[in-house]
Amino acid sequence: MEEFVRKPPVKVGDVRSVKIEALGSGGDGIAKVSGFVVFVPGTNVGDNVTVRVVKVLKKYAFAEVVE
Length: 67
Prior knowledge:
This protein is an all-beta fold and about 70 residues long. It has strands spanning about 15-20, 20-25, 30-35, 35-40, 50-55, 60-65. It has no helices and 6 strands. Strand 5 (about 50-55) and strand 6 (about 60-65) form a beta hairpin. The chain is globular and about 30 Å long.
């Protein structure tokens, strides 16, 4: 079965408003942008936050809360 590969819907520097849907094993908040997972440290489930993307990998990205 071939895996569907697409370009991530975010890039480094993007600022997005997201809702934290879950917590990862490391305690980082997990949000999704067009189904793409974004990890956001220092957040809790249910938080609505504005984040800046700081690192983008094939399957997920990392972002920081914009103060």
